[in-house]
């Protein structure tokens, strides 16, 4: 690995570590905080997650297009870093008081901040890292692994800190954001040569018409069907800590055990990020996507069938297998079936955006289901939805030898 490649790999890995550390510190136990400290019901918590999803789905297409236009410039990452920095003060001095005054106002403010900062911000950072990894020649999965380690490092102590004072987690989030900004200042923008310009295209040449052309591609809508199924994983995770803690006689003990479980899961996930490129390169991008969908269906349905904390913990740990394969396969699929210049837009719209659209619809329904029929039955319904859409995607997604070149030019046979 040459000096430039090593430097960029190290700094981008550090950025992902700090981003996920901030995100985990501020948000991994948010459902416990809303339930136990703020006193919200499941349906009210679902409303907040829905507002977060709605904001993210508005920001993600914008972030994607901006990052594709910027190419390898860091302007958007600087803005995201500033939002990360104010995470602690926002949750303590803005979000919590607003929820006490008015649920709808608090949900709106929380949704705007969390959606724009974390759920849209991570897509921009991941797509930036993936683009640099393609140009410099290192595996995206190995850099993304450090993001998982950042999440795990934060959740390892999150349960303890939550029982002492939930605000400690929020201040830890802002502390990690300071390091994020320092690393970003050290990151030099990659200068591409003429051959790279030809291979990856000139970002400045992109127009909104190029993005709109995606909507006329059947292969784009086939991807949307698949993502609509796997998007359930976000909804499943939102209030899982509440259900997990309820399986213990002492809720505080449940909080701590969830912190350990989540930390262990993400450490395993980090190892999965290291190995996932080997798996996906061997079985192909399409099969990688389908495999991740089947594992997700097993995890969610299994959580509905689980009757004790040990069994449901094993189901939760399947996320460490499913997510790495999903992310690596997703990037490889969109960069080989579509125009590589639009990788950020495709990731943020075709994956992240659709995920948030589904979450905005399913979050309040899931919250109502938890209150009405319980967590287990709601998980069964969610798992069956994932399974059905994954099976349909077997026939819709393009195989390893797409019949049309990965460009935005429509062939007659592909016109709707």
TrEMBL record:
<keyword id="KW-0812">Transmembrane</keyword>
<feature type="transmembrane region" description="Helical">
    <location>
        <begin position="146"/>
        <end position="164"/>
    </location>
</feature>
<dbReference type="InterPro" id="IPR020846">
    <property type="entry name" value="MFS_dom"/>
</dbReference>
<feature type="transmembrane region" description="Helical">
    <location>
        <begin position="313"/>
        <end position="334"/>
    </location>
</feature>
<keyword id="KW-0472">Membrane</keyword>
<dbReference type="GO" id="GO:0015528">
    <property type="term" value="F:lactose:proton symporter activity"/>
</dbReference>
<feature type="transmembrane region" description="Helical">
    <location>
        <begin position="103"/>
        <end position="125"/>
    </location>
</feature>
<feature type="transmembrane region" description="Helical">
    <location>
        <begin position="379"/>
        <end position="398"/>
    </location>
</feature>
<protein>
    <submittedName>
        <fullName>Galactoside permease</fullName>
    </submittedName>
</protein>
<dbReference type="Pfam" id="PF01306">
    <property type="entry name" value="LacY_symp"/>
</dbReference>
<feature type="transmembrane region" description="Helical">
    <location>
        <begin position="346"/>
        <end position="367"/>
    </location>
</feature>
<keyword id="KW-0997">Cell inner membrane</keyword>
<keyword id="KW-0813">Transport</keyword>
<feature type="transmembrane region" description="Helical">
    <location>
        <begin position="46"/>
        <end position="64"/>
    </location>
</feature>
<feature type="transmembrane region" description="Helical">
    <location>
        <begin position="256"/>
        <end position="276"/>
    </location>
</feature>
<dbReference type="InterPro" id="IPR000576">
    <property type="entry name" value="LacY/RafB_perm_fam"/>
</dbReference>
<dbReference type="GO" id="GO:0005886">
    <property type="term" value="C:plasma membrane"/>
</dbReference>
<feature type="transmembrane region" description="Helical">
    <location>
        <begin position="12"/>
        <end position="34"/>
    </location>
</feature>
<feature type="transmembrane region" description="Helical">
    <location>
        <begin position="76"/>
        <end position="97"/>
    </location>
</feature>
<feature type="domain" description="Major facilitator superfamily (MFS) profile">
    <location>
        <begin position="1"/>
        <end position="401"/>
    </location>
</feature>
<keyword id="KW-1133">Transmembrane helix</keyword>
<keyword id="KW-1003">Cell membrane</keyword>
<feature type="transmembrane region" description="Helical">
    <location>
        <begin position="170"/>
        <end position="187"/>
    </location>
</feature>
<feature type="transmembrane region" description="Helical">
    <location>
        <begin position="220"/>
        <end position="236"/>
    </location>
</feature>
<dbReference type="InterPro" id="IPR036259">
    <property type="entry name" value="MFS_trans_sf"/>
</dbReference>
<feature type="transmembrane region" description="Helical">
    <location>
        <begin position="288"/>
        <end position="307"/>
    </location>
</feature>
<dbReference type="GO" id="GO:0030395">
    <property type="term" value="F:lactose binding"/>
</dbReference>
């Amino acid at each position: 690995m040459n000096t430039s490649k090593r430097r960029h790999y190290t700094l981008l890995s550090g950025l992902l570590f700090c981003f996920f550390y901030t995100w985990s510190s501020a948000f991994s136990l948010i459902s416990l905080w809303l339930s136990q400290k703020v006193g919200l019901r499941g349906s009210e918590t679902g409303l907040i997650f829905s507002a977060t999803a709605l904001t993210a789905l508005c920001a993600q297409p914008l972030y994607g297009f901006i990052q594709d236009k910027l190419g390898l410039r860091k302007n958007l990452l600087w803005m995201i870093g500033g939002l990360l920095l104010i995470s602690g003060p926002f949750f303590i001095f803005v979000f919590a008081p607003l929820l006490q005054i008015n649920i709808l106002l608090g949900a709106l403010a929380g949704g705007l901040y969390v959606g724009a900062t974390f759920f849209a911000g991570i897509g921009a950072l991941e797509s930036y890292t993936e683009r640099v990894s393609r140009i410099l020649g290192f595996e995206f999965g190995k850099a993304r692994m450090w993001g998982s380690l950042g999440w795990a490092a934060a959740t390892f102590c999150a349960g303890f800190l939550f029982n002492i004072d939930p605000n400690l987690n929020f201040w830890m989030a802002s502390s990690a954001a300071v390091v994020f900004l320092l690393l970003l200042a050290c990151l030099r923008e990659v200068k591409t040569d003429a051959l790279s310009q030809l291979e990856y295209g000139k970002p400045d040449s992109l127009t909104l018409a190029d993005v709109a052309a995606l909507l006329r591609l059947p292969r784009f809508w086939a991807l949307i069907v698949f993502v609509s199924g796997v998007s359930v994983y976000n909804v499943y995770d939102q209030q899982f800590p509440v259900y997990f803690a309820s399986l213990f006689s002492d809720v505080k003990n449940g909080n701590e055990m969830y912190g350990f479980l989540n930390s262990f899961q993400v450490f395993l996930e980090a190892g999965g990020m290291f190995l996932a490129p080997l798996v996906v390169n061997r079985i192909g991008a399409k099969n990688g996507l389908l495999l991740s969908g089947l594992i997700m269906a097993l995890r969610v349905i299994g959580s509905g069938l689980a009757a004790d904390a040990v069994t449901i913990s094993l189901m939760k740990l399947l996320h460490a297998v499913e997510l790495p394969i999903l992310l690596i396969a997703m990037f490889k699929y969109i960069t080989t079936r579509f125009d590589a210049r639009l990788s950020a837009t495709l990731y943020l719209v075709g994956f992240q955006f659709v995920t948030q659209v589904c979450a905005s619809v399913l979050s309040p329904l899931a919250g109502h289901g938890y209150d009405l029929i319980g967590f287990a039955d709601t998980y069964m319904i969610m798992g069956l939805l994932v399974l059905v859409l994954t099976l349909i995607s077997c026939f819709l997604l393009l195989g390893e030898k797409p019949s049309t070149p990965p460009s935005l030019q429509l062939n007659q046979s592909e016109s709707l």
